[in-house]
Amino acid sequence: MTLRQAQGRALVADTRMPPPWLRVAAPVVVGALGLFAWVLIVDILKIAPRALPSPLAVVEDLVKHWDIIWEDMGITASNALIGLLAGAIVAIVLAALAATFRPVDGMLAPIVAAVAVVPIVAITPILNTMFGASSQFGRIAVAMLAAFVPVFVNVLRGLRQTRPVHRDLLRSSGASGSQTFRFLTLPTALPYLMTGLRVASSLAVIAALVAEYFGGPADGIGTAIASYAKSGRASLAFAYVVGGIIIGLTFFLVTSLLEWVVTRRRPV
Amino acid sequence: MTLRQAQRTASTFAVRAAGVDKVFPTKTGDVVALTGVDLTVDAGEFVSLIGPSGCGKSTLLRLIADLDTASSGELEIFGKPARQARIDQDYGIAFQQAGLLPWRTVAGNIELPLELHGVGKTARATRVKELAELVGLSDFVDRYPDQLSGGMQQRVAIARALAEQPKLLLMDEPFGALDEMTREYLQGELTRIAADTGAAVVFVTHSIPEAVFLSDRVVVMSPRPGRITEILPTSLGEIRDEALRESPEFFAAVTAVREALHGAPVERANER
Lengths: 268, 272
Hints:
The structure holds two protein chains of two kinds. Chain A is an all-alpha fold. Chain A has helices spanning about 5-15, 20-45, 55-65, 65-100, 100-115, 120-130, 135-160, 165-170, 175-210, 220-230, 235-265. Chain A folds into two domains: about 5-45; about 55-265, MetI-like (MetI-like fold). In chain A, about 80% of the residues lie in helices and about 0% in strands. By secondary structure, chain B is α/β, with parallel strands linked by helices. Chain B has two domains: about 10-90 and about 170-270, Rossmann fold; about 100-165, no CATH class. In chain B, strands 6-7-8-3-9-10 form a six-stranded mixed β-sheet, sandwiched between helices. In chain B, strand 9 (about 215-220) and strand 10 (about 225-235) form a beta hairpin. In chain B, helix 9 packs across helix 11 (about 250-270). The relative contact order of chain B is 0.16.
């Protein structure tokens, strides 16, 4: 590389990619500014509507009521997790069937398309009424529905990504059908499954949380946010929102990590 | 008499094709990929298939490997039908793309055929060690394919093809995607490996010097429809080293193959 090329490359790097410290500092600064503006509007200028609490009050409530927030987080998170896993399992099984038998694919395609466009807010009250006020099942079912579609779509695509050279290799090695599935088709589909799970994880949390607005048992993050917002305890409602954010972030980070682990090996 | 010659006279043919045709049905009509192929490959013999694109050389290799089925004619591998030979693992195969599984290490890729056939863990480890040594990759067994160069990946693929100690090695332009230096180096390695293992090799290539350097016989093919036009013995003896590439005999054989390749259209015109 000549000096000129090196300079050129450095210049390109400068304009396109900020240095590492800036990539960390920039969002931190934006966050701090936002927080300052929030404090300014609510605590200093006192021009905010009553429903908007001070961030300081939110932190205060978060610390003070952490035990009950934690408990409700557990309810919502477990509903989301069970829904995510159940939805993923159903999706994997159906995708495997659709990939193996063409007619099954034809039968499932319209159903999956229908499930994909079902509005959660429309089906949740029905499910909650069906399973009653003492059961979490309606909420789990909603999370499951939300998680099913991205996992199914991704896994089905993944199961069809085996390369001809790999198929030839397995065939020439005299591999049986189930061996080909185990040694080739499944590992090839794994990164797609993980992408599906990452997308589905956020959807499952949102679905489980939203489902709580529409009845069912009197616990969970969503129920708490709704009731405290209505009863005028805005800062506590916001503390619960923070709890919801923590759940969503945890799901997203864990599934992103899983995805990274299985996609780290570039295809050759 | 050398070892290879002894094997050749003593045992049966590695490959015997008689009147093999392959027709691919398409929407616009049948495409004749191969017609009237007669070819025998002796045990321990190195045979190259050479010809322009569309001459059916890869198709012939795929038929031998039972990755495709011949439309008509007889095809035997060590006296068995191709399908039986595939199931019995009588051959090892390497493709133009190394075709390594990216989620398996070098060792995991080499031992794949053994694992598929239920060979135990310790036996597999021993064999992987031998094979990695044979292809000069002992220090890389724990690496993943994306950490290797193209030439190293191809060596892993060759080691994998040799895992079951096949008496027949099928190779479909395995060095086609490599640079000239790596290519010549691996050609030398391949002749050594073929001599060491005593395996017959059917080698598809479109490089004349490569075919001549490696082979005992060069099978010249021609397209539309794919067929064998000439089979040329190279008569270059057992020793294939770098000096051979500069020798007059080598150039003479290269010229002979080139003339056979370029002579094909003329001969076809005469047929009409």
